[in-house]
Design a protein that fits this description.
heterotrimer; A alpha+beta; B alpha+beta; C alpha+beta; A: alpha+beta; five-stranded mixed β-sheet; 15% strand; B: alpha+beta; seven-stranded mixed β-sheet; 30% helix; globular
Chain lengths: 163, 807, 291
């Protein structure tokens, strides 16, 4: 029951397979087995949010799940946010326009968390305190969050206008 | 610009190329780095896919001070997937001593002028005989994956004999305290005194004095990416390629070569994409992993985890200041005495880098002509302290700005008014400070206008309006307050930085530099400066930073230096390359180069635009061989290498104003708004500058209110995970308004640049402490220690209340 | 920080899960949301031989509001509860308490049953089930037994569950009618951190404006969540107001026993508890229409 097993799942719309022993975290599975290194490890104990991915559309900390738990599930990672032709998602575009990333290490986690937030309709986006509270689950050491807040507001506005 | 030239301003000598005015510098260009960072296609050290790589895990000391009696590795060696278990015994005689970079880099001029005491205690790569801090590397397991390596760590048996540990620098100075390095005699590893003016005489004559102790606790840099090394050997050639998440790749190479006895060109160190650094330094693993790869003849990978990182990596601050100040009835500060201890941890690999920075920046923007500081770096059984964003400045700015506040309180004056009365005035600039900087060159502040900076910051904050709001709020029982802090920062530290600018046969420009950005956007800003000086667009330029194979000499990115040093190097190299391009184009077009223009990658004759040639054609014409078209005496190839040696640091500055609200019942603090006005000279990219300030301020907020590395009485680390070490989140950082004084380009480099990477982090603890004190008036609170959390503030409030009711 | 090795089982029914627990005893740990367990594994503070993953078990993740009764399957996620339509207005204390659990990504995975079984003294769920007359079903080899919330929590990370029992369902009684107000407040160093202290307050006012029903619960100030009967008896029958709330706050003194740790001392937590009781009661009273 501890041996490696084969896991098949959909990641960013494609069916992928890899093998993992039960204790292999989902984060390590994505990075080392599937070669999707865009999801980053910042703390490996569920606090920093750098490892955030979408599981069936919901944000989860991939360092707090095991690969064996996602058999047959649907994952979205940062590699899946841009369109097939390479054009950036509204969130990605807004982050670049607003300089909401500097070293970029925490960015994948933020992009995923914000993508979920926007899919929910960005509740409370005009309330500074509520918006920052929503973002407080992801740590950033570079930006001071200022431009991230601005980027999220713009992305929400774009989606509201349907552009 | 009026007034005398800065004494260190370089004279434009022969060989200095004519520089073009800016097209791209100063623009808010979107970043070239973003494309890969936003799409998960960056390559950090942990992202490298190396076939056959082995994984290392480091066994670390659980004791703060202990003798190692025995290490039994057999059970670990026999564990599944384990390839080797190594201890100091395997390194003895094979790996040279861990040289202290900063000690070897100390300016002889500074040594001569200040005469510091510097004692050397080289740090072992793996512990030999003794461990001196919790987390110190003791052994390393190499296995086929990290999971198995960590399993095997649990099987390595180390017999420790615990020894009494020192967890406090004052205790470490007591006679009879355990001495960490007996060969040094005591626990003082460095010390120095700096004296300016007539301190004792001024104190004797002064109307007022006060003295206090001010403390800044220990923090850790906490880049979001932990450290890591991947070393790939070529056993046949005895060469190594090492990817290292370290902002000084050339220094890593130097260490590896010296400690492993290898020629420089046998070791290539590449700084991959780096997720922050916030400080610099060499660590044992940087060399250990290289050694293991060479030893095993196989690639070896080590990625630090966060627990290792919190225990070991870039601890900082941890200073105790005993200060005395002499002042007059108008609040003019006449003289200052400061004796301070830095808790350096078990090894001080940075000599007097941080402690001297503190001495040099203590007076900041204030005209205080009489000062004496005595600084000691004291060894204790904690992780070694390194320079981290601010590097000695936040500590002394906290000291100075709390002193200003205390002086004001003593005299019943507004602290802002006391600041005004003490600031160096613009007509006094450039201002000599009466002591050398760390490079040994006597400090002369760059031209600046500190009073105008203060007024601008106050106005941007809405200071008068806030005072009215404060009065109204007080009547309703709300406690809001405002605090101010200012700093001066020596930036663009030398000794040099270089650039190789080259054009390929397709006309694409590559810039190689020894700088190693980790968030500073140098791939964009250096492209901007290159584009301006060469005559291309930033899209035509690719910046490759931090690869020892691409440029032979380099220093790295830290100390707010890269915009100044790498920026200038790139700009001058590009300007010189432009001259070369025009010379070659002149051959092709049979026109004198002075009649040619290079713009947007095309060389054209002035007034005859049909006589043109592309940069690609010029590059091809400059290719060596019989068909090269070169002016007489010119070497083939379109490439220029230039190393910029700054005359000394160029001084940036800033003023911060913060508004806070204190919940008197609980001690919880909310930051209402934060305003900065800084002078960073010429901005390469204002968006990048503002981002650096935002991030610095957030870091400073962490240092002020949240972040502390805590050890217990036995020097056991208590803050070992992110449950206990608290980094500020988006909810903890208020909106920050950044303003700039743009009228003082640096006179020390041709592009007018001053560094800005650290400034934002320097003032927040002082400004926030002052604001909290202000919010609680008329209760007399004294914040003499940061970080300050709600409980301690609550207790200060209760004590002050009791004192005011009882008194 | 890689977890130690373990065997992994993914039962599909509650009975299978229970059998696995019975079979492996102390060597097995249940994996529900994983938001508390997996960090322990990463830090190697726990080394179970077997991880029994409950995420594949059928019939444990239901969530239904039936009149005043909220029926929650043990594997329902915090986020599912938080997103129940009208919960914010129906029972602000429950909504606010659940919303304060960590961050969205944590609430997407963390489960109600898992939080209760884990019994962290600073967790919100234990206090919510105490306040809302919770009943907790425990399924074991011999079937299901119902444990009232007041009997479920023993001490730190210890409940009335036997080693071979699994929380399967939780039922709460939501207050109804006019004149009811509730809230949940806590103080933490940062948003989403564990509370230094937290209070859930529920007030029902009669037509005359006096307190007819009161619930006061506290977290982070004892070895388990506390329901302060002392505070509740002070409140019952009295008219809401600052003085009454202060008296209620003092009454919790004897029922709490905070500890000191790196984040706060016992004395400070005690002080915060009283401040929060006053503030929570004031807000609950205001919402009940009787501020």
């Amino acid at each position: 029951m501890a041996e490696r097993r084969r896991i098949t799942l959909r990641v960013n719309g494609r069916e992928l397979s890899g093998s993992a022993e039960p204790r292999m975290t989902l984060a390590d599975f994505l990075r080392d087995e599937l070669g999707l290194t865009g999801t980053h490890l910042g703390c490996e104990h569920g606090v920093c949010g750098a490892c955030t991915v979408l599981l069936d559309g919901r944000s989860v900390r991939s360092c707090l799940m095991f690969a064996v738990q996602v058999e047959g599930r649907e994952l979205t990672t940062v590699e899946g946010l841009a369109a097939p032709d390479g054009s950036l998602s509204p969130v990605q575009e807004a982050f670049s326009v607003h300089h909401a990333l500097q070293c970029g290490f925490c960015t994948p986690g933020f992009l995923i968390a914000v993508t979920e937030y926007l899919a929910e309709g960005a509740p409370g986006v005009d309330d500074e305190e509520a918006l920052r509270a929503r973002l407080s689950g992801n740590l950033c050491r570079c930006t001071g969050y200022q431009n991230i807040v601005a980027a999220v507001r713009e992305a929400a506005e774009r989606m509201r206008r349907g552009s | 610009m009026s007034g005398p030239a800065h004494p260190y301003a370089p004279a434009d000598g022969p060989g200095f190329p004519a520089l073009r005015s800016a097209t791209y510098v100063g623009q808010r260009l979107r970043r070239k780095e973003d494309a890969r960072l936003l799409t998960g296609r960056a390559t950090h050290v942990a992202d490298l896919r190396v076939p056959g790589v082995l994984h290392a895990a480091v066994l670390r000391s659980p004791f703060a001070h202990a003798r190692i009696a025995r290490i039994q590795r057999e059970p670990a060696k026999a564990a599944a997937g384990v390839v080797g278990v190594f201890t100091e015994r395997d390194l003895d005689g094979r790996v040279g001593p861990f040289v202290e970079a900063a000690r070897t880099e100390i300016s002889p001029l500074l040594k001569e002028k200040i005469g510091p005491t510097l004692k050397s205690c080289p740090m072992p790569v793996l512990a030999k005989d003794r461990v001196l801090w919790v987390g110190q590397p003791v052994a390393v397991v190499v296995a086929v994956d990290r999971y198995l390596a960590e399993d095997a760590l649990e099987l390595v048996q180390v017999d420790y004999e615990p020894l009494p540990a020192v967890n406090d620098p004052e205790d470490a100075l007591e006679p009879g305290a355990p001495v960490l390095h007996p060969e040094l005699g005591d626990n003082v590893q460095t010390s120095f005194t700096v004296s300016v003016g007539d301190v004792d005489g001024t104190f004797a004559r002064a109307e007022h004095r006060l003295s206090t102790r001010l403390v800044m606790g220990r923090t850790a840099a906490n880049a979001m990416e932990t450290r890591g090394v991947v070393a790939v050997p070529d056993p046949g050639r005895d060469e190594l390629t090492v990817w290292c998440a370290n902002a000084r790749p050339h220094l890593v190479r130097t260490f590896i070569c010296e400690m492993l006895g290898m020629p420089a060109d046998s070791v290539r160190v590449i700084g991959p994409d780096m997720g922050g650094s916030f400080g610099t330094g060499m660590f044992p693993e940087d060399v250990l992993i290289a050694f293991l790869a060479r030893e095993l003849g196989r690639p070896v990978r080590w990625i630090e985890d966060r627990r290792e990182n919190l225990a070991n990596t870039r601890h900082a601050r941890d200073q105790i200041h005993d200060v005395e100040v002499a002042f007059d009835g108008e609040g003019r500060i006449l003289a200052l005495k400061d004796r301070y201890l830095i808790d350096a941890g078990a090894y001080n690999n940075y000599a007097i880098t941080v402690s001297y920075n503190s001495a040099a920046h203590l007076r900041g923007q204030f005209a205080i002509d009489h000062m004496r500081v005595e600084a000691l770096s004291v060894l204790t059984n904690k992780a070694p302290v390194t320079p981290v964003r601010g590097a000695g400045r936040p500590e002394v700015v906290f000291v100075m700005d709390r002193i200003v506040d205390l002086v004001a309180a003593e005299l019943g004056l507004d602290p802002v008014e006391v600041r005004r009365r003490n600031l160096i005035r613009p007509e006094q600039m450039p201002y000599p400070m009466g002591m050398p900087y760390r490079d040994g060159v006597d400090i002369v502040y760059d031209r600046a206008d500190f009073p105008a900076q203060l007024e601008r910051a106050l106005e941007a904050f809405g200071y008068e309006e806030f005072r009215r709001e404060q009065a109204a709020a007080r009547r309703l029982g709300r406690r809001i307050g405002v605090g101010v802090s200012s700093y001066v920062e020596g930036s663009g530290y030398g000794p040099y930085e270089g650039a190789v600018v080259r054009v390929d046969p397709r006309g694409h420009v590559t810039v190689a530099t020894g700088a190693k950005p980790h968030g500073q956007s140098l791939e964009t800003t250096l492209a901007q400066i290159c584009a301006d000086q060469l005559g291309v667009t930033p899209d035509d330029v690719t910046v490759k930073a931090g690869d020892t194979a691409l440029i032979p000499h380099g220093i790295g990115t830290f100390a707010s230096r890269s915009a100044v040093t790498a920026g200038t190097a790139v700009g001058i190299a590009a300007a010189r390359l432009r001259e070369k391009v025009l010379a070659v184009a002149g051959e092709l077009l049979e026109t004198h180069p002075s009649d040619l223009e290079l713009d947007g990658g095309v060389v054209a004759a002035r007034g005859a635009p049909d006589r043109r040639v592309t940069l690609a054609e010029v590059a091809r014409a400059a290719t060596p061989g019989p068909r090269a078209k070169l002016p007489d005496g010119m070497e083939p190839g379109l490439e220029v290498v230039y190393y910029y040696v700054p005359p000394t640091v160029t001084f940036a500055s800033g003023t911060h104003v913060v508004g806070v609200e204190v919940d008197e019942e609980t001690g919880f603090v909310r930051l209402l708004k934060y305003v900065t006005t800084d002078d960073c000279g010429r901005m390469l990219n204002p968006t990048v500058v503002e981002g650096q300030v935002h991030g610095g301020v957030a870091h400073g907020i962490g240092n002020a209110l949240f972040e502390e590395i805590v050890y217990d009485g036995d020097a056991q680390l208590l803050t070992a995970t992110y449950m206990d070490y608290l980094l500020p989140t988006a909810s903890d950082v208020p909106p920050i308004a950044v303003g700039h004084q743009e009228e003082f380009p640096s006179e020390l480099n041709p592009f007018g640049i001053k560094g800005v990477g650290e400034g934002g982090a320097v003032s927040p603890p002082a400004a926030i402490a002052n604001a909290i004190v202000d919010a609680l008036r008329p209760l007399r609170i004294d914040i003499d220690r940061v970080p300050i959390g709600p409980e301690r503030l609550y207790r200060l409030i209760e004590e002050a209340r009791a004192a005011s009711e009882g008194g | 920080m890689k977890p130690p090795p373990f065997d992994y089982a993914r039962p599909e029914t509650v009975d299978e899960a229970v059998s696995l627990l019975a079979e492996h005893g102390e060597e097995a740990k249940l994996l529900a949301g994983g938001q508390s367990l997996v960090p322990l594994l990463a830090l190697r503070l726990a080394s179970p031989s077997v991880l029994v993953d409950l995420n594949g078990v059928r019939g444990l993740d239901h969530l239904r509001l039936e009149g005043d009764r909220l029926v929650i399957g043990a594997m329902a996620r915090h986020r599912d509860v938080e997103e129940l339509p009208e919960l914010r207005s129906r029972c602000p204390m429950l909504f606010e308490g659940v919303s304060l659990i960590g961050h969205v990504a944590i609430r997407n995975r963390g489960t109600v049953g898992g939080s209760l079984a884990h019994a962290d003294p600073a967790a919100e769920w234990p206090s919510l089930v105490l306040a809302l007359d919770g009943e907790i079903d425990a399924t074991g080899p011999k079937g299901v037994r119902t444990i009232p919330a007041g009997e479920f929590f023993d001490t730190y990370f210890t409940t009335a569950l036997a080693p071979d029992e699994i929380v399967s369902e939780i039922r709460l009684r939501l207050p109804s009618g006019a004149g009811v107000g509730s809230c949940f407040v806590e103080l933490a160093r940062r948003h989403g951190d564990f509370a230094l202290a937290g209070v859930g307050a529920l007030l029902g006012l009669d037509e005359g404006g006096s307190v007819s029903d009161a619930r006061v619960t506290l977290i982070g100030v004892r070895d388990r969540a506390v329901r302060s009967l002392g505070a509740e008896s002070v409140l019952r029958g009295a008219r809401p107001g600052e003085e009454l709330f202060a008296e209620a706050a003092e009454a919790v003194d004897k029922e709490i026993e905070p500890v000191s740790d790196i984040h706060a001392t016992s004395e400070y937590r005690r002080h915060l508890a009283k401040v929060l009781v006053r503030r929570a009661l004031a807000r609950a009273a205001e919402r009940a229409g009787g501020a």
